Hints:
Elements: H1 3-18, E1 27-31, H2 35-42, H3 46-67, E2 71-78, H4 86-105, E3 110-114, H5 122-134, E4 142-149, H6 151-168, H7 173-179, H8 182-186, E5 199-202, E6 221-224, H9 234-246
Parallel strand pairs: 1-2, 1-5, 2-4, 3-4, 5-6
Helix pairs in contact: 1-9, 2-3, 3-4, 4-5
Amino acid sequence: xxxxxxxxxxxxxxxVRSLQADRIPGHIGVMVDGNRRWARxxxxxxxxxxxxxxxxxxxxLGWCDDxxxxxxxxxxxxxxxxxxSAEELDQxxxxxxxxxxxxxxxxxxxxxPVGAPEVLPEYLAERLSSLAERTASATGLHVxxxxxxxxxxxxxxxxxxxxxxxxxxxxxxxxxADELSVENISEHLYTRGxxxxxxxxxxxGEQRLSGFLMWQSAYSEFYFCEALWPDFRRTDFLRxxxxxxxxxxxxxx
Length: 253
């Protein structure tokens, strides 16, 4: 092993030893940002950046599983991303489909789609639905895949479903308005029944939410990393966990 690699290995072991099990976030959201920029800086086609990002996802899930993280939400494709060129979207959808197959092939991993399937190609929407059904009984790492996802759309969809349920149950609109609560909305989100994310990580140096889990991240801790997603290392992840463990979390202000 070369000296830099040896030093990084020793540093990683030191970081792992510094982490306490009760300070590991139970739910981590990650914005896998920087794939296209990575390809551009590497002088490679955009497709290579998306493929490198997909490979990093598998590494990342392994790190999470090893450290006892229970839920991971991956922001893989936003509704805004649907405005990209048809060629890039076609390539990206194929890579996402392959990535889903690999995630679903892991032992005891549960996959849950988070997004609007109607904006996706039919084959990808069907792949997501089939994978969710096939892995529903898995008790290991729970992976939410945000594909065709938009935070504002999620809230609108939740309210729309809430109104439809009220109509089906014969609940008057005025009564619904008087009784409406935060819990009512939460119960109709894509992530209903799940804990909110404790930690949200965004790579590539960008420091904005971009519509990711807008409702659920109200009290999440955020960690912004300069590394582009394909370059995100286990060391970077461990630093994020160490930073999270050192924070004094406040709920309500």
